[in-house]
Each structure stands twice: as structure tokens, then as C-alpha cells.
Fold these 4 entries.
Entry 1:
Amino acid sequence: MNARTEPAQGEPLTPARPPVVRELLLVAGLFVVYKLGRQLAAGHTGEAFRNAHDVWHLERLLRLPEEGSVQSLLLHGDTLVRIANTYYATVHFPATLAFLIWLYLRRPAHYVWARRVLAAVTAAALVLHLALPLAPPRMLAATGLTDTARVFGPSVYGPPRTDHLSNQFAAMPSLHFGWALMVAIGLIVATRSRWRGLWLLHPALTLLVIVGTANHYWLDAIAAAVLLGLALALIRPPRPAVTSAVPGARTVVPAEEPVLVGAAR
């Protein structure tokens, strides 16, 4: 007789959500490690500026466009540059948190995948921050760039010598860009809307903002994208579910665990 695909007995059709208290602690821990871990690399001022000169010259050797070409677009008007500074200061954490909350509520399996990827990228980034302290382009006189947040506001950073809440010498990789790219990829993978590709506007806008405000080099974003690519290659998303082959049935079966019945009858 013909075999048909049916769900295994007792198998849940929708993946169970992880315990909310545990996930709150894990996500909160991710953000705390991100903030505290960056401070471990603080204090390497001389090395950070030497590395900044090397990165700047490497970009010129690679013929990457100068960051000033993006900043000049923002400096056409005070309003535009203040919007960019506000985006840099306020969108990064809330957008990532909203992304995780939505996945947790609507796509539990994708939530676990995305949380693991973000944790892996963040851990790898912190290691690179320790190994390669890097002053951002706004601090490097050779770039000729303006610290837009300090001049126009709002700014999330104080003077480097007195700012004990963040490590301003952790420019590479840019987790602003890495997290934004993961938010877009995660939503594209987890949804089926024909317009889901528009989520890529979030990392694209983030890239223009972090470069235009002189907080990051192009290579900072490239390094973040490489780390994210490696994490995505190692941590695979859940497979989409398929509908039952029985005519008229509406049962949804996880594609990775089909059970064949009736083949020996």
C-alpha cells in the first residue's frame, strides 16, 4: 500500500516555548555581558590608536570608499545628522529586544536559533575587542571626520578618560551592524511575507548611520558580517513544517521528523 506521512504519536505540532524566566535571564545576561565585556578592553589607548591608523590605511589600500563621503551627506542639515545620531543611540538595543520578544511569542523554534546566533556573535566580538582594541574614526585626526554626536547631539558617550560605562575602543567588529543584520535575516527566515526582504533596510540604514556618524569604519561592519556568517553556518535555523499528504487533512508535521505508517500493511 502507499505510505503516507503523519505526525508521530504524541508529538507536539508547535515547538514549546522555552521557560520565560530562564529566557529573560539568558537575554539579560547577553546584554550585560555585551556591556561589561566591552569594558575589559578599556585602557589600551596607545594600541587602539595604532590599530586605528592601520585600519584606515588598509581601507585605502583596499580602495574602500572613504567614510567622509557618507558623513558629508548627513552634514547637509542639522536635522538629518541629529536623526542619525538619535538612531545610533536609541535603535540598537530596543530593535534587537523587540525582535527576540516577537520570535519568542510567535516563532519559538526560530527564537532559540536566533538567540544562539546572537550569543555566538557577541562572544566572538568580545574576544576580538580584547585582541584588537580600536579607536573609532571620530577619534582619529587623520580621517578628518567630525564627531557628529558631540557636535550636534545626542551623544551616548562621554570623554573617553571619564566614560566608565562603555569601552569606546571596541570599534571592531560593529555589533550595531552585526545585530541589525541578524534581525533582518531572522525575520526573513521566520516569516513568509512577499515584502520580508524590506527588513534588510534596517542593517542598510544602520550601516550608513554608524559610518556617517564616524563611530565605525567600513571594515568594522565587514568583520561583523563575517562573524555572523560563520555563526549562521554553524547554527542552522529550524526546518519549515510541511502539511500532511492525506487529502483534506490540515495536520502540520515538522519536516525534520516524518514518520511513515502503513508501508508494511
Entry 2:
Amino acid sequence: MRLVLARHGQTDANVRRELDTLPPGAPLNALGHSQAAALGERLAPEPVIAVYASRATRAQQTAAPVAAAHALDVQVLDGVHEIFVGDLEGRHDHEAREEFDVVYTAWWQGDLDARLPGGESAADLRARFVPAVEKVVDGAADTVVLVSHGAAIRLAAAALLGDTAETQYVPNTGLVVLRSVVDGWELEHWDAAPPVEGDVTAGGTTD
């Protein structure tokens, strides 16, 4: 089976480069709704048997056209919301972004217990996200779609693939596709896109 991890469409908080991690969060803006519609068309030919979304409004709105294309309902899944940035919530200044990048880089370097100020660590995210994924893919024979969030997808995909923290950017409505294998998961596809400066999912460095 295949697990398609999709990032939500654009919100005004994304445009402002705001750290918006607490559900329900900002809704999709006009471009975000267009992106969601295009995602529904993109995934319409796929053998999708279930569509899940986080508790965030933007994730559920993005998942709706995908589900509609397959005559399915969007199922809200606990545990797959964005990593909580704590004291940085709602901020969009350069200093806040730098604080996030420092912690994300620590995760990429293997310190999964490094914690955002007042927020979560990569270990926290993995502890809630991975069991949620395992629950919905158990026994599935075809494609399962899960609409989540950029940093959460990067950290969870790394966990499922046996890595620490992925450094590749996930754009709005970008896809990370994993295929189940005998001993876990392998990466089938990762949508490539240049990072958007200030976007929370652009964190991490390969330097």
C-alpha cells in the first residue's frame, strides 16, 4: 500500500510567514482553495481508499476535494497536527524564525529531544504522529491520503523511513509518497520545490 502525505494549501498565515501551529488555525485563502482543488484533480486517478486530515481547518479544507473525487468523507485524525512551537506561536519576526531553525537543525543532527521554547520536540511529534499513521494504514491494501503540515510531515516521514529529521522542503499541497515494504517504508516520491523564505517547513540545513 501507499501512504500519501500531503501538506495543506496556502493560508494568510503562510503569506505572513507566521508560526501558526495550534488547531484549528488559519483557514485556506483563495490560492489555497485553488491548490486544494488541483490536488483533488491530481489524486483523482489514484486508488484512494481513505482520506484523513489533522484537526486544523486548513488541512480538512485541503482534504475535502481529494475525498470528494473518490466519494469519500474526510476523517479527522488526532495526533497528526503541526509540531507545536510554544512561545513562538503567532510570531513572524526574524528572531522567532531563527529560534525555530536552531532547534530544527538540532533535530536533523540527531538531538530529537531538543525542544522549541514552551513547545514540542521532534521526539514528541514522532510519539503522536507515527502511532496515528500505523492505526490508519493497518490492513489497508491501496492508497491512504493524509493531509497534514510541513514540519510535521518532514519529521514523521523521517521517522517512518528510519532517519532523524528530513531537510527537504514541502510546499503547499506538496506530496511525500511512501510505499510499504516488508520491513517498514520506502520513499517513492517527494515533490521538489525551492524553499520559500520564512516558511516554517524550510527549516533545517545540510551545511
Entry 3:
Amino acid sequence: MAVGEGVSEFAIGDKVSVIPSFMFTEYGTYGEVVNLPAHAVVKHPDNLTLEQAAASWMMFVTAYGGLVEFGNIQAGDFVVLGAATSSVGLAAIQIAKQQGATVIALSRTHAKDDVLRQKGADFVIATNEDDVTAKLLEITDGKGVNLVFDPVGGKEAAKIINAMAHNGRYIIYGALSHDDIAVPVFPILGKHLTVRGYELFEITTVPEKLAKAKKFVFDGLASGQLQPEIDKVFAFDEMIEAHHYLESNQQIGKILVKV
């Protein structure tokens, strides 16, 4: 390890992790030796293994930004999490529960219900099998959901928006459906809803927001309230197999490659 000129917050021998705060064309991390800017490096708590540390920062910082920084999550909120078995979805479950919210996890089918409940979800809705709007209203006793953190979007978004509470916030951070998001006008007007796009770079490229995110995640990891989810670890020479496994969509949590 080497430390560049002018960098004072790190020293040779420090155990550090990387936060995705740069374009993938700027710096490469698929290697035994990598060069990274100081702002993208963070020390991690001593209670984490290197594997756990590698599985932490992208997912927890992303979820922190959507739920806390921009979603203004409050204790008692009903929170809907799309694609809940993804690494960010699992991180969002932990942060939402930590903040005192009730978590409603979305998955395409009920096949992963037990896993999601084990990970902390209070309710699970299968978007391909259930009447999403009716289920959300049933769970919330007709009051509607306060916060949505969703990487899917598409036409199905209307089913969620139609079951939102007054002053609800819909944060979309992906486009897994590839269709334009369907936004019904009358719920937005009548309930004063906010529909907002969100990117991780909104946190990681703003020094003040990144500092707050680092502290939030570091404290959560150190206390054990936040725990990284690792599905499978591959050796470095198994990089092709790791990508095939990623494409199979079987994982629950992060896939790691170990040098």
C-alpha cells in the first residue's frame, strides 16, 4: 500500500474499504493492486472481516441516502422496499428497522418470503401474485404507505402510488423494469406526494453528505445494528463464474471476489 502526497487521514497498514464515488471509467478495482482517490476510501470498524467490509459500503450508503438523507424516514413510517432481496434491498430493511419503521418488502413471487421475514421484513407482497394496492391499504389500515424506496419503477409503480399516504415520498433509484414509470396524477395532487429520482453519486460526490453517510454506516456496523449480507465468495481466478452466478439472479446479498 502507498499513500499519495497530501493525504493525511490514512497511513500504510490501515484496513480500508472502497465507497463507489467515481465513474467506473475513472478507476479500476478488478485487480490485485488498485489506485483510488482518498475520498473514495474509508476505514472500517475492527469488528468486521475484510469480506464483511467489502460487502458493506455500496449497499448501506445507497440505502442511507434514499431512506435517511432524501427519504426523511421517521419512526412509525410504513416503508415499501422494491427488489427487497437485492443487496441494497437487504441493507434498506436493516436501516428502516433501525429507524423504527414498519417494512413492507416487495418480491416478484412468494418464494423468498421466509428469507425476507428472517432478514427483518414485517410484511412481504409478491408483485406478480398479489393485488399490490389492496395489500398495501390492508396492511396500513387504509392510511397508505409513507415512503417507497424502489429500483424497479415501470408501469407497476402506479399500484404503489395509489396506496400512498398524504405527503408520501416515492424514491426511485433504478429502472429494472425498463418501462417508463407510471405516475397517476390524482394521488399526487390530492395527497401532495413527492416522486423523486435518486442516485448514489448524490451522496458520494458531495463531501458533507458523504461524511454524514460514512459516520452513519460506520456507527451502525460498529454497533452491530447493521450487518452486511454475503451470499457467496469466489476466488479471483473464478471471476467468470462469479459473473455467471450474478447473472443467474440466485443470490441473496453480495457476491464477493477474493484476491
Entry 4:
Amino acid sequence: MSWSEQVEQWLGPSVPGPVDRLSVRPGEVTARVGGFEVSLIRAVPDDALWDRVCEALASQEVFRARVLAGELPVPVGRVCTMFGVDLVPRGWDALVATCSCDRWDGVCAHLRAAAAALAAQADRDPFSLTRWAGMDRGALRTRVMAAGRIKGPSVPEETARDNVSEAIIEDVADPSDHAPDSAAAFWSAPSPPGPVDIPSGSGDRIRAAAPGALADELPPFPRPGT
């Protein structure tokens, strides 16, 4: 499954349309679609969740090599989800979606066109999805390097396998059998927390003539445990 298919799975079916000025920044995708301003706002996972993701990626050689090489294979999304970071939000109810049109009876065609443009962008640059979730390419690479205790900028010489989906998770034994700092003990850790909580009703459409400005005024999403 490609990154665009991942987006369409949760935000589809897509509707092609005239999308201009598509922009992806932490927490928000904005675009102008057919003369209307569109915004897709998501919760941004906190640093603790991203640290767990980067530790997991660093502990698997094939993922570590691909990320340090500036690549983001689709199975990385499964690892992220396991640790509470959805690179693609699970449906429109996980978003605050705004459009300046007058269609308030559901997800309008302008929003779906923006989602289609995001899907295409994700295939060209998968790190657009990590940036939307609050972690751009450089920051993700730096954190994976730190988690893997890699001091230099070089990428491991061994070429990563093409079929990375085989390397996501391996069977593990009782965590007490492993050294505390070992990768095996890491994968044997207790179940990760669930997805980031989003305020009730956050999937409702918000009417705004200038949704980009409105998005900047929205209160921050609460973080787990606060």
C-alpha cells in the first residue's frame, strides 16, 4: 500500500480538484481549492511519543538505515501507530476541517480535493506526513541518530532490504530475560498508550472566511496526562 492509499483509506474517497498553494506545517494543512480556503487541523503528538517512535525505529536496522538515508517506507507508519503517533489521522472525526464555502452538511468536495492533493504530496515526499504530525525530515533523522547512538552523519553501509514490512516486529520473550538497554527489552515493553486524545466534537466543521487565521487562534490540543 502506498502513502497515497493510506491517506485515501482514512480520508477518502478523494475528489480531484483545482488545488492551489497546498502547504503543510505542524498541525495544519492549508490550501486554496476552487477559490475557497481549506484547512485540515490535527493534534500534534508530544515529544514523549515521538521519542518512543524514534527509539523503535533506531532499534530496527532496516528502518534506521532507510530513515537516515532520507527515506520513509510505508511500514514505518505501522511502527508510528503502534506507539500512538498516526501519521495519517484515522478519519475526518480526528480532524478539525474548515472550508470557507457554504456547504455545512458534511465533508465538502473542497476538503476532499485538499485530501487528494495531500495524498499525492505524500507519495512525492512522505515526510510531509511527519511534518504535519510535528516532526520534519531533519528533526526525525536527528532523533533516530541520537536514539541509535550514531555519532556521525553517515548512513550504515549495509543496504536496507526492499521488503521492509518483514522487519516491523519480531517475537520476543519475557522482558526480564533481556538486558535493560537491549532492543529486545525495548520491544518487550508494556503496551504503548492509545492515540492522542482530541477534544469532543473536534471533527465538526468550523465556519470561517479565513480558516488559516482561525486555526492559529484555536486552543492547543491537550496532551496525554494533563
